[in-house]
Amino acid sequence: MKKGHQVTMKEIAKKLGVSVSTVSRALKDSPELHPETKKRIVEMAKSMNYQYNLLAQSLRISKSKVLGVIVPELTSHFFSSNISGIQDTAYKRGYNIMICQSNESFEQEKANVRTLVSSQVDGLLISLSRETKNYEHLMELYNREIPFIMFDRVTEDIPVSKVTVDDAHGAYLAVKHLLEQGCKKVAYFSGPEDLYISKKRKEGYLKALSEFGIPASESKVYMTDLTSEKNREVTLAMLASEDRPDGIFAMIDPLAIDIMMVLKEQGLKIPEEIALAGFTNNPTSAVIEPSLTTVSQPGYEMGQIAANHLLDQLDDLVPDEPQSFVLLTTLVPRNSSKKKPNA
Amino acid sequence: MKKGHQVTMKEIAKKLGVSVSTVSRALKDSPELHPETKKRIVEMAKSMNYQYNLLAQSLRISKSKVLGVIVPELTSHFFSSNISGIQDTAYKRGYNIMICQSNESFEQEKANVRTLVSSQVDGLLISLSRETKNYEHLMELYNREIPFIMFDRVTEDIPVSKVTVDDAHGAYLAVKHLLEQGCKKVAYFSGPEDLYISKKRKEGYLKALSEFGIPASESKVYMTDLTSEKNREVTLAMLASEDRPDGIFAMIDPLAIDIMMVLKEQGLKIPEEIALAGFTNNPTSAVIEPSLTTVSQPGYEMGQIAANHLLDQLDDLVPDEPQSFVLLTTLVPRNSSKKKPNA
DNA sequence: ATGAAAGCGCTAACAA
DNA sequence: TTGTTAGCGCTTTCAT
């Protein structure tokens, strides 16, 4: 299937007996043009159904007005919120976005970076895959001075701007809340150890424990690769453990929900026998039963801020020095943790 | 912030004392080249950190290898599944995707079409906004012979390929199931009347009723604009109605879930007093309580099929005639409707 | 097996 | 106020 012919400036010029530059100027609404000529050209363009060729412009001005976005997966509500924020913001500022998903694969992520760079995106917004522990591909972007920033799944090893939430504090709020509800033995269910958010949220967990004078124990930290199978397996292992926890803080909501399913299936009362809190505030968490206590993470706003900052950098509206944006999280107490009626 | 310099073929050519055409041929692995020259060039390119400029290629060959995608919203699980399928497929076949969201606005959708066309996408995949009742912008694409196809939210007024599910049949399955469970008065909760899926699913609803010898009544059809407020309002109106339904088929899961919330809040037993079924099979539906009976709609596969078909058209692998892909849906019976233990 | 040259559609410095 | 010209980075036909 071949595309139909597209009208070019050249054709408009010919029809009107003017030069292409004049057409270009008229269509750009340049002031140094006779209003009459401008009018004729604009009208002719409209009548010929002229459509600007952004590709040609991009090549000429060495700017594509396209932002590349790489996320681990498109179907997670959190990431699609991010993208939504990025897309709306970019669009408002005259940019389009090109999207890739790494599917949590390091190799795929590297390939994504490559194609987006080849496509001449003006900048990139990246959220790292679970597998990414080596940052050479990012270092290369950095060395080649291709503007990019990271969000949510970031690394501190690369000196670029980052947009995250106060992961440690959010986790602290959740765990503190569980302790305030009377939990004595709170477990932390964590994703892969080297994930930035796994670490940060653990910090908050430990801080809350220590504040309540509870000695931390590695036996209360449960690690999963975040697949449903593993989540289930680890939860069952926890239930079978000698010193069964009476409260759980899960690193992300989907994990918390998997845990909840197992607890319910095993006939445990939530929150009476075991309280539960997550992190993200996915839509599901509000409607599940019992409703899930969680920490809200403003995905859409993160996307907006990330995109605006990157575009500000591109437009030299802000200094080039990397900046860190840390968004606030808030605790959303719900029934999965409320042991006390007044809480 | 300015981007760093990018190496071009010209520079490689100069360094090696060959012509640009030779470099181009080497990098394309053209057979009519001395293997030795080819090797030298490829190695030089690597050592100079050469990155292909897809933009320049696109302009030259009049193909961007980019697909444009327009969806009503990015954050819905169904649409992000579609996009995921489209992205994976496109990527595998050497294409990138550019994404826009219409935010359910007709004006925005028209603007999206315009920018994507300006960006010289090779083809478009479109799912219509709720507001779209006028198809001139699509007709223009059609007349300008820009390949595009529609998915999920389609219109029959434009002769292009479409990817949908058997909406009517899926709805029929759901309603039949409710009737088999003993419901006597089944209501249909519908989105905006002129939406393709509203109409199709109503067809299925009516068919099931007639098969069970139940006279259809417009008073059992409840219309909402799908906002949570309106959903709630309409549900309350239904509960207050004289002849209260004992079963509800909701056009999409999010609507079903809003309805469920109101029913639970009003103290109604689901499914005993009122049974409920949705359509889409969102992840939430499986974990909510009671779990929601629904019709599964393969979003990812729809995206794959849509993208593959469009690319097949672009590559002349299939005839240009519009084709309709109707994917099968299956009933997913869950607790929100199971009145009989053996069902 | 390789090079020269034209050109994709546009912009912008320079000329007139 | 408008035109001429060169060129963005690449591909491809036509020579050699």
From TrEMBL, chains A, B:
<dbReference type="InterPro" id="IPR028082">
    <property type="entry name" value="Peripla_BP_I"/>
</dbReference>
<dbReference type="InterPro" id="IPR010982">
    <property type="entry name" value="Lambda_DNA-bd_dom_sf"/>
</dbReference>
<keyword id="KW-0805">Transcription regulation</keyword>
<keyword id="KW-0804">Transcription</keyword>
<keyword id="KW-0238">DNA-binding</keyword>
<dbReference type="InterPro" id="IPR001761">
    <property type="entry name" value="Peripla_BP/Lac1_sug-bd_dom"/>
</dbReference>
<dbReference type="InterPro" id="IPR000843">
    <property type="entry name" value="HTH_LacI"/>
</dbReference>
<feature type="domain" description="HTH lacI-type">
    <location>
        <begin position="7"/>
        <end position="61"/>
    </location>
</feature>
<dbReference type="Pfam" id="PF00532">
    <property type="entry name" value="Peripla_BP_1"/>
</dbReference>
<dbReference type="GO" id="GO:0003700">
    <property type="term" value="F:DNA-binding transcription factor activity"/>
</dbReference>
<dbReference type="GO" id="GO:0000976">
    <property type="term" value="F:transcription cis-regulatory region binding"/>
</dbReference>
<dbReference type="Pfam" id="PF00356">
    <property type="entry name" value="LacI"/>
</dbReference>
<protein>
    <submittedName>
        <fullName>Glucose-resistance amylase regulator</fullName>
    </submittedName>
</protein>
